[in-house]
Design a protein that fits this description.
homodimer, Arc Repressor Mutant, subunit A, Dna Ligase, domain 1, two-stranded antiparallel sheet, about 25% strand, globular, DNA-binding
Chain lengths: ~150, ~150
Amino acid sequence: MDLFEQGLENEWLRQLGERGSRLTGPRRAIVRVLVRSRRALEPLELFDAVRVEAPGVGLVTVYRTLEALEELGLVQRIHESGGCRRYLRAPQGHQHVLLCLRCGQAELFDGDDLRPLFARVAARWGYQIEEHWLQLFGLCPECQKASA
Amino acid sequence: MDLFEQGLENEWLRQLGERGSRLTGPRRAIVRVLVRSRRALEPLELFDAVRVEAPGVGLVTVYRTLEALEELGLVQRIHESGGCRRYLRAPQGHQHVLLCLRCGQAELFDGDDLRPLFARVAARWGYQIEEHWLQLFGLCPECQKASA
DNA sequence: TTGGTATTGATAATGATTTTCATTATCAAT
DNA sequence: ATTGATAATGAAAATCATTATCAATACCAA
């Protein structure tokens, strides 16, 4: 049992509870899978994974729970050129995503301090900048080996 | 008539032709609207705009033409938290997108040279980096005024 | 233990995108 | 200019992911 993931699981459940949500069986199972996954998962993949341990859970509940977790900022949607339907455990603080194009494995990294760049861009166009995304795509070590 | 946009329109049609596509009325109309739009457009918005000038064009043709233009790299999909269905005239060379959260107005800017950052990330995780996205979101000057 | 109510899963509905297919339009070769 | 092979079109139907509906159930404060 991974202590970090165990702690994260409890923390997510705590935040859900604090928000006024009930800690039901389906929610516990969904959180459990999400916290432990190092891949970004589509709702249907998540559904399948959850049903291994909790066979009764419905797809709709998966969608609803993802929505709640996204509102809490515990999970984030991953954007890819082929579609944007995968979700990943959200980064702590302001981190960025590095995604394997082949297997969907995700890593998080701290960006440089990009604020000077933002300030220049904001000044240049008169925009008030609210948000930014930086995402890198590539091949993870395993997929590099596999394709060599 | 804007000479730059006129030139861009001809260039897109040329590239479509070179690729083996026929230069049909519907395609000309769709290209014309896309080249002139400074906003990122959803397929349905594009459809509506095209039908002002070319009433007979079907929505399916809009989808098909967007697909062809995306393959040619002339148009790019814009990613937003609320969904990822808008398309924008693609940047020249390697530029990044600055998008107004309210009205969808888009600007393109040259990024700093981010390669040192990529090199560090690649080394740290053993990834082979293929692609990157940097996107900024904010309020354009007009929308700032409107909300003040 | 109980009761009020949030949550659930099955089903149906929705909405965007794709596929199908008969008709039409383009354009290279006359 | 005409022709003809075939790419492209638009209408309609199909598909797919996501969302809404609703009666039954499970949670949890009292």
